[in-house]
Amino acid sequence: MSFGRTIIWLMGALLVPPLANGQGTEVPAELAGTGYFRDQDTLPGAYRFYRQLPGGEGGLWGLGPTRQKLSHASFRVDGHEGVADYSPELRCQKCHTQQTKDLHGLRMGITCVQCHRSQPIAGVYQYYSPLNPIRRHAYVCAKCHEGATPSFASYMVHEPNPIASEARGTFPLLYYAVWFMLILAVGVFLFFLPYTMAWWIRDLVARLRRGSDHG
Amino acid sequence: MADDRTRLRRFTMVQRLWHGGLVLLFMLLSVTGIAWMYFETPWGRDLASVFGDYGDVLEVHRIAGLVMLAGFAMHIVYLLCRVDWKGFPWSLLGPETLVFQWIDVKGFLGHLGWVFGLNELPRFDRWSWWEKFDYWAVWWGLMIVGVTGLMLYNPVLTSDFMPGWLLNIALWIHRIEAVLAMGHIFTIHFTVENWRPSSFPFNAAMFDGTIELEEAKHEHPEWVARMEREGHLGAALVPPPPVPLRICYFVFGYAIIFLGLFLLVFAIANAALLTLF
Predict the structure, then answer these.
(1) How do residues B90-142 score in pLDDT, each as one tens digit?
(2) For residue A174, what is the nearest residue in chain B, using CA coordinates?
(3) In degrees to the nearest 10, what's the CA dihedral of B111, B115, B120, B123?
(4) Domain range holding A184?
């Protein structure tokens, strides 16, 4: 067999099987998907920085929010699985009271399911959850915040009370920054308010004395 | 016309204009910022409705903030032009500059002693310690609210350069510094400058640029004495501004003061309705 014939045979072998498998039943290339979501976006290891899992990262990132305790529910397809008395009819606020007290809910009227999606509500670390930090930016944040990045999505929507001692463990930099600012502000008022009042009284006394000197 | 030249020139036109611009922008930022912060209360929503809806309030706040930072940048350029570079750095010291010096420590301790009746009122030169403090407090405040405000201006862009969770921190710092600045201006600054018995009811020095010579002899005796010694005093004396202008300054000043007190009183009254965390 000549070299040219070999080439033609090989080309035929490559071309024929799809035709032989029945024309038109294959998914067209434009609908097949790139495989990116399945093979890249959901691989644990992509966007390692943003997983917010214990262990921490170095540098500035290490000072950010940390997860001290992660419940198994955070990894379940149905986060409420096994919760006694749970019913999809209940309002989220009945149990998750703290989670409704933030800017998204109070100021913008964003409802829980706009980000957490509807029943069954997946745990945020569940492998395919839209809120999993490896894809949260694209699947949730970017619905309103155009161009949201994984870094942007590390903003803590349900932030802790910054002055409570729990925040020292879960978000240390927030805790220290807010305490620093509070001490500064309270210190300024603690000094200047009484000082200004005493000064006002002293000023009045001086003025009355000057008045009586002239008169 | 020596008789009616009873006032001493204290601030230049540029300084008065910058103070006026600062007043207007500070109040605009205060109203929009408080409306935004109190948006969950009926009072906050009423305040916001002056500007339209929630988004409009934010937009006005952002633009006013940018204008204020531009004014701050221009002030820094102005300062660089005003520095006497030949004598630098010693030219930064002396009675005419706002740089804190040893004399201000003495001035503060002397003033403290005077308030509690222990000694005579210190003989302040051109700037007393609290006037320097007021000037630098604007610097420190603008640096803090300015940097955090710029971070919050476009959160998505900001998080390209730093972790997004720094925005949690930036917002808290921005809020606390803003509350500190507003609280300070609406209580301490108004009282010290306008409601002390010796300057009641209104101190227009920063608006018309002059103070009464008699008042200067009492509050800044060393300044007046120094000018007299150096022979500048005569040239620095000016007649009082025309009455219609003085009425304008008074009306403007008190409009701002009442706006500030309105924000202060209602912000405190509604504070319990706020959900902060």
Answers:
(1) 999 999 999 999 999 999 999 999 999 999 999 999 999 999 999 999 999 99
(2) B169
(3) 30
(4) 164-203
